[in-house]
Specification:
Layout: E1 2-6, H1 12-22, E2 26-31, E3 43-44, H2 53-72, E4 76-79, H3 92-105, E5 110-115, H4 120-126, H5 134-141, H6 151-161, E6 166-169, H7 173-176, E7 205-208, H8 214-217, H9 219-232, E8 237-240, H10 247-254, E9 259-261, H11 271-278, E10 282-284, H12 289-296, H13 308-318, H14 323-340, H15 343-354
Parallel strand pairs: 1-2, 1-4, 2-3, 4-5, 5-6, 7-8, 7-9, 9-10
Amino acid sequence: MKISLIGDFSTVHANLKKGFLSNRVQCDVYSDGDSFKNTSRDFYYGNPYSGYFGLTRYLMIDQLKQLRSIFESSDVVQFMGPNSIVSPNHFRIKYASQILKIFDEYPNVKVGFLICGCDAHVEKKMRMLPRSPCEGCLKDDGLGKCGLNDTSRLEYENIILDRADLIQPLGGSSYFNAYKSAAPSLPFPFDSDLPFICQGPVEKLRVLHGINRRGFKGSEIILEVLRDLEICYPDLFEVVVPERLPYDKYIELVGSCDIVVDQLFGDGLGMNALACLSMGKVVLTSHDRDWVSKLYGSDSPAFDVFSSESLRSTLLKIAEWDIADFRGAGEKSRKFVENSCSSEIISKKILDRYFEKQT
């Protein structure tokens, strides 16, 4: 059996590939490396952006040819989401009929979509979250990222997803609630081969906040708190703020820090939080602890932060820890990821759902 994974988001498909291979399923990842993150992939499959309409059109036709060739050699084709098939946004509805034609040409190939990033359906649910990232995202990340401002995106998603054999939400509760026909949610897969580096502060606490989408993660609020703590408590805190680093370089920097502040908006543990937890870091991130406990089968080891006040008070509390506290928290975090995020188990459940063995 061959499964092809198209697109990637923060190493979700890269991690699922490990699980499929463990289940003796041939698997390849086709992606652009998640943009600047440059995550691992087997073949390039990217967004044909161009300033020239003619060239953009040519590249999109070429991308559809590549998609057809992937279907020819696959038993299952799984997309990161409905928007990972073709880009840019305003061309998707135009090419929907050609995408469906490819689906129809290969009726024996199972087609699936993971739901774990922004699309028009998910954005409608995110707007209603108590800790919605939408206001900050629209303000700081640009209106072009939001499907609610482009009615053709919703139309496109309805057309494409209507043909899916599996719609599989991962992670947050907003993903699970976005689609009536979705399968039950599964945890994010994360098989860590990252080093466990949990030693506690040597001198100051090194606190990291990585920036990629400032509005979505609440970076301006986070940075204001971190800079203020660094000024008020210069002997306690050292702030580290990398921006848009390649994934490997970012992980290397995480290894030199004690605490990672992920984001202030959201309802689940994301891939960045899981990566840092697996390395034994103290992670602060907004999440619904009840939902995480239900989905992952274990209490979250991360600290739930959702405002400047909760972030500040939590960091000051952690500053009182000794070395044993850091090591205990780190070991708990690593075990959580190892026990709850196995890509082998999660990929097996996904395979069963494609072939109607519901688990």
